[in-house]
Design brief:
Four copies of one chain form a homotetramer. The first copy, chain A, is α/β, with parallel strands linked by helices. The first copy, chain A, is built from eleven helices and 18 strands. Chain A is globular and about 60 Å long. Chains A and C meet through loops of A and loops of C.
Chain lengths: 346, 346, 346, 346
């Protein structure tokens, strides 16, 4: 079958590899129908994080084609959307509903686990990892619920966005835009999006945000101006750069809440004494996956629509072109969707 | 000054009465600029609940014209919108933020307290009772935050409406419509409005609800049909009739939450054994007043708009005509606003 | 094997019946080491609720002796304590963590499901139904976590007992006493226990409650006296009689919360109009099972001990004598434990 | 009157100064009956933070002897315990119940505000700043509710300590010991206290903690050993040293919550990238003052007792000796109480 294979740093190839099969009784095998390229995939390609020879990708929809003996909740032909992480459902962390910390889990398409940018994919712990797609809802509508939309929602939840709150989201990439959309679900009164790309800010605006282009105006001053001089109640960081984190911290009011969603992989020192008298809460880490069902339901009933994020749709056979467009932000790219159907083979 | 005076059951008059003045150091005197007629006013007129000779009305905006020595937070010329209840801010109930149960408080325009449908009104405990109106925001935008919008919000909060929940609101009068609008602020996926008047259901639909006309179709069956056969997660009753309460209870799923906002003044027996094996939560009572600031902020920033409810605007001098229109639901009436400005006198 | 078999109303027998075996791949087979007699068992014996010829009982500890292919989290020799209800873990109700409403579940020892008062028991949905017992912790310490302690905790959670609250528990039977113990875990300032049996009130007192013997003094008046005239913040009903429910409702302050745990199987009318102006919340239904792990942990670390409830320990062979003691409240009985070990046979 | 006066760094004197009087209509004048010495007082003496010539102290009980015209809730002869901070009750921060951030407030005994270690003290914003002491409850029982007990409670609340959680408190000074006591009010299963002074750990043990003397054993390893190798769910830092903060961060499990209560006045860099893949929440800042009433109620009903902290009781006239004992931790000192009664003068 066709698959996007990681061959080492900056070496990604579309190759023919053997089709996977059920290895454990809790596995499901899916025919992948749609996948999406994520910034984490770019991290892996540029910096490592996958075994050479393995496929990448962790945002996906598909159809069940086989299932292990212990898979209870899915059967052949079920359409599914999945978590990027598989998790055991039973360890202390799963009990706390912190699946990305699961002691027996892992990230698809990374650290030796096969990914989903292939015609077929083996999904471990299928009962926990997958969710059914309601009839009639196309893949494109729900594919983001597994990763970027759950992550954006996590940012909003961890920043305790509540009725009447002012919120600023730093970074209008896919995760930041999802956070903007989710802030509306909790009664925020003002949602500010900060980025340096006008075409992304334009989408933020269409999702209901007031926008600040940080290339043109000083964002901290502008956020304060929009919030009576105090800063926002909730700051959500969705870029992961030291500078964005700093801007986010400074834009959040005394006593406010900061949630960092961007991957903080570089040393990012923060002096705790700076904020002692200002009191604040900071949460950092990967997104939780507790609300995929609710997100799917909201999308199904027309209360949430992230369709604006899909700027490019390509066949799996053009995945490498998709990666180039996504990484270089060509042609106003926000999110690239790969359709696997037309690329079928044995 | 001109005032709407209760003279006994079914005897309401527009009269000239003396202008009120500061009686306690915590009072403010306001020139009322806008008031609204509430279903509670109709209850009082039809069934009693005010001392004959006293004014009625408890939904209002105005301008501060005088303030007692202990009023700290308001000064002359401030524009304000107010709670229907005044409360001490210090008793056990106020500490619990249950202002309508205040041991030292009361309802304006009822039980011997002068009301606000007059050119001027004395507002007790002004620091607790009033909220500032942001510059540039007209009275019509915020007047409902004191009573019906706070009540609608309370229904949503007490029914614990949360992300992805299905909600049904029984009764599309002013409070029910406010509950529909507020359910959107908490991430509900499906909001169903039930009433028997098409023109009211039409407004519910414009506020984002799926509608059921209970005169034309059996509402319990229809609600179940819309919710996979189970009933809604949260049922909000906003009419107060035994039949509506029963419909609400039956339309809410096992393990769901019911919040009753309608005034339950007639005996309404409910057999607890009916629901023991179905587990559920029922909350009943007057609305809380904890979120007027947040509601004003949401309106100010365009996230909430109840303008559709205002079907009639009349001068104070035509208050009695307003009462007739409101009570008889003439001319597609939902809410009657009285403008006090043009009716000035000494 | 020996088992307590329901043979029809008021007809319970100790019989030899065939040993159960794994029927479904999600089953576990346990050798029951300890069981307890519950008031629900008495309901079944007196009023029906089990198929004649089936065993009863749903409070138990045991050791895994066999497990179906799909049981992931337990293996032979594991010591376990179990839920009275088995549940699928996947339906809408399980997703809401309302296991007793599971669309695919059931109560052990009732409605045709075999019970646990036998030498061996088949436990459906073992991964969901069972919890491991930490090494060194005897059955007697944890057996109540499955039913009566989880139920008592549910009452406290549903009544939203929080820091500094006053609480009254009506009924000092096993569930009521568990509620008293749990109220301490949420920072209650005053915990009042009401019953008519001094020996039960004595246990309540040793668990930290102020006690009222309703046979000797009017409980509503006394509760109000103990709470500044207002009534308690949280009322928990743990008897299920109309009179106790009425006392509980009257003893709870305006704006307070009532949680009904007692089985309300007889018509119990409640007039909603009585409480409209008093505002309150009422929750009714079977206990949730979300916190067995936490309860076991608290017991393990010495923060919670319900040992005082065990007034009688008998071998399984004397189960019928145990039922008589329990039902007639002989010899100061609160809870009867059956030890299954000595009664072994093939 | 006699007062403890700050005369510059390391220069504290007991002097005769003029008695204060009501300056604003919201002031109360109290005769201070009891005060306590706080670590913040030592900070001020050693590093500045008060105007020379002004009194210090902010932990106190007293009796109302005079009250301004706008004081509504207190009258002469009322016994009171007070917040260390006075606050307006109306600004955005007060609305958020973050009184220590009040835009119109301040800390008694610091930054130019007169303190309470004097025979009389003027208390600004008395309605917000003071709480009544129930009849019969001695000052010593409630004096800590204003500062150290509210701070300890804040640490527990901000670390979201809940049912069955494991908690470690780093530093067994007065605030740390209060956090230990409060963790019991939220159902913690394991409470670990870490310090290097055996006599303080002894008090922690008597308050229900497992103790670690970090001078004798490596605390991170020991905490992990006590928590199944993972670290605690909730880490509370109550010392403010970089090393203690680091130990706290390392002792808290992935996905856990850290609350820093210690005054972080020295640069304390923390690299956010260290914890990104571990996910966690960190809250820092002064304690909230939202639960003084509840704490007083818990003490009044015998559910909470911090009497063990009072190791020294001296007359106000020996305040300087008290400061020496407290600062140098002489004679097993934890907390020094000053009794103002015997030191009366005009």
């Amino acid at each position: 079958m066709k698959a996007v294979v990681y061959r080492g740093i900056n070496n990604l190839r579309l190759e023919d590899i053997p089709k996977p099969h059920i290895e454990s009784p809790t596995d499901a095998l899916i025919k992948v129908t749609t996948s999406a390229i994520c910034a984490s995939d770019i991290h892996i390609i540029n910096e490592g994080g996958q075994e050479p020879g393995k496929t990448i990708g962790h945002e996906y929809c598909g159809v069940i084609v086989d299932a292990g003996d212990q898979v209870r909740h899915f059967k052949k032909v079920d359409r599914v959307v999945g978590q990027p992480f598989f998790n055991c459902g039973h360890c202390l962390f799963c009990q706390q509903r912190q699946q990305t910390l699961c002691e027996n889990g892992g990230l698809l398409g990374a650290f030796g686990n096969q990914g989903v940018q292939a015609e077929y994919a083996r999904i471990p712990r299928a009962d926990n990892t997958l969710r059914k797609i309601p009839d009639g809802l196309p893949d494109e509508k729900v594919i983001f619920t597994g990763d970027i939309l759950s992550t954006g929602l996590t940012g909003v939840l961890r920043a305790h966005v509540g009725l009447g709150d002012t919120v600023a989201v730093f970074g209008s990439g896919p995760v930041g835009l999802c956070a903007v959309a989710c802030a509306h679900l909790f009664g925020a009164s003002v949602i500010i999006a900060v980025d340096i790309q006008d075409y992304r800010l334009d989408v933020a605006r269409r999702l209901g945000a007031i926008t600040i282009n940080a290339a043109n105006e000083e964002p901290v001053a502008k956020v304060r101006e929009l919030t009576g001089g105090r800063g926002v109640d909730a700051g959500i960081e969705a870029a992961g750069f030291e500078s964005t984190i700093r801007t986010c911290l400074k834009s959040t009011r005394r006593g406010g809440r900061v949630s960092i969603l961007g991957s903080v992989t570089q040393p990012t020192p923060f002096d705790l004494s700076e904020r002692f008298f200002d009191m604040f809460t900071l949460t950092i880490g990967l997104g939780d996956l507790n609300h995929m069902e609710e997100l799917i339901r909201l999308i199904h009933h027309g209360q949430l629509d992230l369709g604006l994020l899909i700027t490019h749709t390509l066949p799996l056979s053009e995945a490498l072109r998709g990666y180039e467009i996504f990484e270089k932000k060509l042609e106003g790219c926000i999110k690239v969707i790969l359709k696997h159907e037309g690329s079928e083979s044995q």
